[in-house]
Amino acid sequence: MVITVNGIGANWGTQCSHPLPPDVVVRMLRENGIQKVKLFDADYSTLNALGKTGIEVMVGIPNDMLSTLASSSKAADKWVSENVTEHVKKNKVNIRFTLFLSLLVSSYVVLFAYVLIFVLFWLGRRS
Prior knowledge:
By secondary structure, this protein is an alpha/beta fold. It has one domain (about 10-125): Glycosidases (TIM Barrel), CATH 3.20.20. It has five helices and four strands. The chain has helices at about 20-30, 45-50, 65-70, 75-90, 105-125; strands spanning about 10, 35-40, 55-60, 95-100. It has a four-stranded parallel beta sheet with strand order 1-2-3-4. Strand 2 (about 35-40), helix 2 (about 45-50) and strand 3 form a beta-alpha-beta unit. Helix 3 (about 65-70) crosses helix 4 and helix 3 (about 65-70) crosses helix 5 (about 105-125). The chain is globular and about 40 Å long. It starts with 8 loop residues before the first strand and ends with a helix.
């Protein structure tokens, strides 16, 4: 059996007792050939450190935000603008996906579709 690997990724959580500075983590990712990273939130300094690195980023929407974003398209617009668009445009962060950190339920499906369509549309305009 032959298995082909197209890249190695890592999970990066920021809620810990002794976090390393984001620039140190990014350096470690690059030195170890990590090409993809999943963030559990859209921490500004973390995203800022990932700018212009080429590392593919998946940004998580924290569970405590899901209800608000699912019930308000204005809140969803704002979240995408501040946590995706701003970092892609201004800092060249290679954000490829957003994800929900809890299981999808019916009320979150609408938000998922909205965010997915917005991000795909924006990424299409960027290329």
